[in-house]
Amino acid sequence: MAGEQMVCPLCLNQADDIRMLPCLHSFCRRCLERAITRDHCPSPTSVEPKDILECPTCGQSVTLNSAGVDTFPSNQFISNIFDVMVPQQSEYENGETAERSITGRRWCSSCDEGSKATSVCKICNEYLCDHCVKAHQRVRLTKDHYIERFALDNMSLPFHSHQHPQLLSPSIHSSSMQHHSIADRPNHCCSKHEQEVLRLYCDTCSQAICRECTMMDHVGHSFIYLQEAIENSKIVTERLLTDAKTGIKALEESIALTQGMAERVEMRAQGVATDVRNIVRRHMSALEERERDLLRRVEKIRQVKGKSLHLQVDDLRLGLSSLLQTVDEAENLIHTGNDLDILKTRDKMVAEMQNVRKLRGHLQPHEDDSILFTPPDPALFNAVSKMGIITSSAYAPNCFATGDGLKKALKSKGAFFVIHTKDHHGDPKILGGDPVECIIQSPEGALYRTDVMDRQNGTYTVTYRPQLEGQHIISVVIRGKHIKDSPFVVNVRSGRNYNSIGNMLLQFGSEGEADGMLCRPWGVCCDKDGYIIVADRSNNRIQVFKPDGQFHHKFGSSGTRNGQFDRPAGVAVDLQNRVVVADKDNHRIQIFDIEGNFILKFGEKGNKNGQFNYPWDIATARFLGTEGSSNGQFLRPQGVAVDQEGNIVVADSKNHRVQIFQPNGNFLCKFGTNGTGPGQLDRPSGICVSPEGLIIVVDFGNNRVQVF
């Protein structure tokens, strides 16, 4: 078997430098170097073309670094086993193999006393004298080895253990034939220590070694007997073969399944295309029939109107001709006729004028040009232009995920993110039903699935609760394909322990008006970069400090204009990193960028919607409630925060309690009563929620901070 592996499957030559690819296929160095190709279309992030190596067997591509083929490990295990199991050609030519197999006189190789060997250990290929045989059987590592004693006549032919049972270990006697075929193979000497036989295998270096090697190049390494390594390799190889055969069957079934699905896609696409053509042609036929009907109506109207007008024109032309003739005759008779002719002309003119009066009803056209077409409602055109919808399943490479749960999480705490699906055209899906799977790999390598909730609108919510700290890998797949940017790497850490508060880490500021000094500061928050933003209330300004407490910049002054304040209280930073300030005594909210540039404002004094009455605090979430002491009502609320799940937490100051609302504004729960005991509150003001879900309340009237 080893000899077959040492023949390169490409050039069919015995290889002297085997390299193993990541796909576990092995080839000689020369063939691998010939298979390298240059990628002249590198990715946008790469600067130079890269060398690509494609496995000649399975086609898997590997990008090489500057080391080239040396990137791949040498298949030392196969090479070393080959060195031990297959005799070199020179040995066959010199007759060394035959000479070793027909053993002549041997000396004990285990001791330095020069004693004649009487036995051989078939496991470690040691020639032993009688004294060393007994020692061999006493040592725990070798006491179960199979030992054969040489024949008594010339010590050259071994005979089996039943002739000298006292020299054999009982546990090995029953399995002696199992080791016999391996131990009978010819010995091979160490290339560095020519007098030493290769009897051991170094697990650290994956190399066959001798006893001398253990004391020189392999000091401190882990090694076992060579035959044991061979047997272990055989067992592992057999297991791998079983797994490989199972994998072959699974791959063949997958190929058949995938090919069947491809055929179904073709048939389904053809069927849908036929349905589209039929529906469109049916609508086109209806439209064409309607067109013919409308055109027939136009033609009928044209004919009737045209005939009426033509008859009218004929009557008018006849009257005009008669009148012209009468006028001509009358003019001639007046100039050339006698008195009697003039009298007759008068009568004729009177009669002709009476005929003209009869044509008065023909002087205006009997028809108009009113032929109107009233088009259908534009909605019909839009409906026709968007007639029918082609939908497909979600296409993983077009889908993406958003949410804090893709970036960070706390041990034993819930985290979540949302998956947004798109189809093969890149259009957002509006229906659910896709097989979205999410698998998380813990730092220990364990895999577990997470809960995926189908919202039935093309989005899916994934929730998970990591139990270990460290780097977790989250894979989101749809039908076996990763969505965009998957797998994701999430660092999980333990939350803070508030059972005991340690020493103060940092303090800054003192009373005053200079930069970095404060006068009755109220609101405080941090932006995404860790800068600390303080509402310096009595100084009518906002101050920004570095994460280490050093003054950075300030903005605002006393007044009512844009960017000015009258005792600013609450301050918060929204998702766009904008600073939102509750300008308390100006009864308004002002929004700035992080540098302090005014963006917008809203609110004025009053109790109507959109008006404020001394707003004390602010958070980037919706507001709710009315005045009172019932659930969902407030008396002078002075603190608000939003937890990781979007719940709104309010310090209801004059009700001496904290109320919690769901993201949709529905009342969830409350805690706290007026008092000085643990859990009781006296005018709670500032409030925040830690990433661990703990609610930290400034118990103003009791001069303390409580954690719930």
Helix content: 25-40%
Mean of all residue-level pLDDT scores: 82
Low-confidence stretches: 1-5, 43-47, 81-104, 153-183
Terminal Cα separation, in Å? 69 Å
* Coarse morphology: flat
Structural class: alpha+beta
Strand content: 15-25%
Query: How would you sum up the major sheet?
Result: 6 strands, mixed
Radius of gyration: 49 Å
Extended strand count:
39
Our count of helices gives 12
How many domain regions?
6
Care to describe what's here?
Keywords: Metal-binding, Repeat, Zinc, Zinc-finger. It comes from Magallana gigas (Pacific oyster). Belongs to the TRIM/RBCC family. With 708 residues, the chain is α+β, with helices and mostly antiparallel strands. 28% of the residues lie in helices and 24% in strands. The longest helix is centred in the middle third of the chain and has 111 residues, at 226-336. It has six domains: 18-41 and 48-84, no CATH class; 119-149, no CATH class; 229-359, no CATH class; 396-493, Sandwich (Immunoglobulin-like); 510-612, Thrombin, subunit H (Beta Barrel), CATH 2.40.10.500; 626-707, Thrombin, subunit H, CATH 2.40.10.500. It is built from twelve helices and 39 strands.
Q: Can you describe this structure in just a few lines?
A:
The chain contains 12 helices and 39 strands. With 708 residues, the protein is an alpha+beta fold. The chain is flat and about 185 Å long.
